[in-house]
Amino acid sequence: MVPFRLYRHLIPQLAAAARSPSAPKAAASCAPRRIPPLPALAMAAYGTGVCADSKLLFRQLFEKESSTYTYLLADVGDPEKPAVLIDPVDRTVDRDLNLIKELGLKLIYAMNTHVHADHVTGTGLIKTKLPGAKSVISKASGAKADQSVEHGDKIYFGKLFLEVRATPGHTAGCVTYVTGDSPDQPSPRMAFTGDALIIRACGRTDFQGGSSDQLYQSVHSQIFTLPKDTLLYPAHDYKGFTVTTVEEEVAYNARLSKDKVPANSFGRPEPVLPKDDRCRCTCQHGLRLPGSTIEGLRCSS
């Protein structure tokens, strides 16, 4: 059933039209009144629908300990129902794989938007449980994965694809995955921003090779240039939000919508680390995480 609140704003206009002398007389009928379906934007915002024109199945999943969102997308118009999973968390891998099995999907890619400092990615565990799945992360991250992607690459699952946009600033290897812009792709477009853009905020820039100047440039050139109705899905949320749009963030994101100032996301001057400190941190595979001084981070595998 369509929630009444979605159409409550139309009541004054409908009442005025009914009072108009030119309004047609309603014919007596016992037939049930047809309620129009939810618009595509509303369906996508709820995060549980299938977009009829693109055959996209979409789920937004949540891991409460790190407040991380994981996203499942699949082309259910393809007989094999190929799927991708964005930013999986190790603690919820079993939940995610059970859902994929229940929905009859074939997971082909487990993807990360960046190397995460606040939780362990689930891509390595997924590969042990589902050997056919491949891990994906940006080449600029320096992390290990089956497929390293760069700006402009396209990741296909069935007839649908995600475009890779480099959005460094939170980390040196951050990317945003954006659905395609051709007529056979989901509409409105969807962008999975990682920590580059969080609803009404952004990721911190004082470690892991972060740069507030670079983050500002990334968001304005790669995210805010998308159509204003593009749905933005972050990797984290701490206030109960689930989705936003380009138009909303341009208007209301106090950290990213104002004129650029020479300070990081906490309002302090950019830290300048000694050269020796910039390479102190290594991940579990012995790979350097550029610019980080935080120990114990784990990369994608």
From TrEMBL:
Domain Metallo-beta-lactamase: 67-236
Keywords per UniProt: Acetylation, Dioxygenase, Iron, Metal-binding, Mitochondrion, Oxidoreductase, Transit peptide
Class of enzymatic activity (EC top level): oxidoreductase
Cofactor or coenzyme needed: Fe(2+)
Keyword Iron: yes
GO MF terms, alphabetically ordered: metal ion binding; sulfur dioxygenase activity
Gene3D superfamilies to which the protein is assigned, alphabetical: Ribonuclease Z/Hydroxyacylglutathione hydrolase-like (3.60.15.10)
InterPro entries: Metallo-B-lactamas, Mito_Persulfide_Diox, POD-like_MBL-fold, RibonucZ/Hydroxyglut_hydro
Major site of localization recorded for this protein: mitochondrion
Catalytic activity annotation: S-sulfanylglutathione + O2 + H2O = sulfite + glutathione + 2 H(+)
Listed GO CC annotations: mitochondrion
Keyword Acetylation: yes
Compartment(s) of residence: Mitochondrion
GO BP term, pick one: glutathione metabolic process
Assigned EC number: 1.13.11.18
SUPFAM superfamilies reported in the protein's UniProt record: Metallo-hydrolase/oxidoreductase
Family: Belongs to the metallo-beta-lactamase superfamily. Glyoxalase II family.
PANTHER family, per database record: PERSULFIDE DIOXYGENASE ETHE1, PERSULFIDE DIOXYGENASE ETHE1, MITOCHONDRIAL
Protein name: persulfide dioxygenase
Native species: Triticum urartu
High-level lineage: Eukaryota, Viridiplantae, Streptophyta, Embryophyta, Tracheophyta
